[in-house]
Amino acid sequence: MNRVRLVPLFAAVVLAACQTEPRPQLPQLTFAHLPVYNLDVGNVEFANRYQPPMAPPHVEHLMPVAPAAAAERWARDRLRADGAFGRAVFVVRDARVTETPLPKTSGFRGFFTKEQTGRYDALIDVELEIRNDRNYRDARVSARAQRSYTVREDASPNDRDRIMYELVEQLMKDLNTTLDANIRQTLPKYLR
Length: 192
Hints:
Layout: H1 2-17, E1 37-39, E2 43-48, H2 67-78, E3 79-81, E4 87-94, E5 97-101, H3 107-111, E6 116-131, E7 137-152, H4 157-186
Parallel strand pairs: 1-3, 2-4
Antiparallel strand pairs: 4-6, 5-6, 6-7
């Protein structure tokens, strides 16, 4: 009789031990702390021309923050219309993230070694166009950034989420640096 009572208790303990840890609460990726570019245009528009394939090796659709969404957030936080005519168009041309398996040591040595078994490669390519009222392009700035991160074989799903978040965060810092320099150099007559 005692054994019958212990079986459900044992099963409950085993199931509780198998529980997955909750998904991490990652900070919101924002650029509101950076200065705003007041552009001499009537409005600012956003266009995402990148269509993720939603199939391996592409993983941007599985990320906590996709590069395309982060780039649009950058534009919404940093670009303001402060004129009467024309428009600024912020275009995401490419925002891919791919996962590549890395070779792993096999055999006895591989059994005792924790290795980097995957690599995430991220690329973001954007363009900011200034268009006049006749829809002709008066000026254009582009920027591109690339980053790669590797993942250990024992990384949990939460570890992978953190790595993907950090990858996009660093990618956007690189993009921001390039855009800042290019906007100041190429678009000074459109800045207020």
